[in-house]
Input
Amino acid sequence: MAIPKESNTLPHASLAPCIEALVQARRHHTLADARPLADAVATAEAAYAVQQGVADRMAWFAPDAPHCWKSGGPSREAELTHARLPDQGIWRSPAATAWPFAMRGIEAEIALRLALPVDAAHAARLNRDSACRLIDAMTVSIEVVDSRWTQAGDAPALLRLADLQSHGALVLGEWTAFDAARDWSAQGCRVRVGQAPAREFRGTHSLGDPAYVLPALLRHATRGGRVVPAGSVVTTGTWCGVLPAQPGDTVTAVFDGVGEARISFAR
Output
């Protein structure tokens, strides 16, 4: 199934119940039962069509505005997955929120920013090195993992993909110049959640290099004749797994030589 352009055109009718369940969960801050929909989304293409259907119903994206995406995967052998993120959940650090998250999973990440627009023809020619030449800046990001499914992380993988890969919100730190030759295998990262001691990580990105996602993400994002505008942002996957946070916690992620990001959750 081709991913539809950003419009009010409904994807295939069989996906309508999944789209409706996610729309209602988002509008009313409730959770939907994934069990009746377990077989409704049978492919990644269908999951992406649900993403788009929800975005259309929620009127998330203004035409020609810069995009914010998440992209990643558990290893280079696995298929990478992607989701475009709603603008209202993209926050500058330090952020403070009373948003009613069902979960508060914490992922410490590196986000990259495009200096140039990219269309499908350009994206088709990209490899890691040429994609890096499109990036002008990087920053520390914290993704808050959340779910619209009652089963949360136990929901079927394709339903989690349909739900923007369990995205809740994204906090972006200060931008700094991108270094394509950076040794990510030596990159240190510290994450502190609430009053617990900081946890330290080094070289723990699942793909070994945050920029590895760029060619696949940009080919995905430019399908259907779309152009990814300059200034668009890609957050590239966790360095710390998913760490639990609670109401009242402040979370700080620090990447040596890159910067930090912080979010505080209301009690």
The CA atoms of residues 2 and 45 lie 7 Å apart.
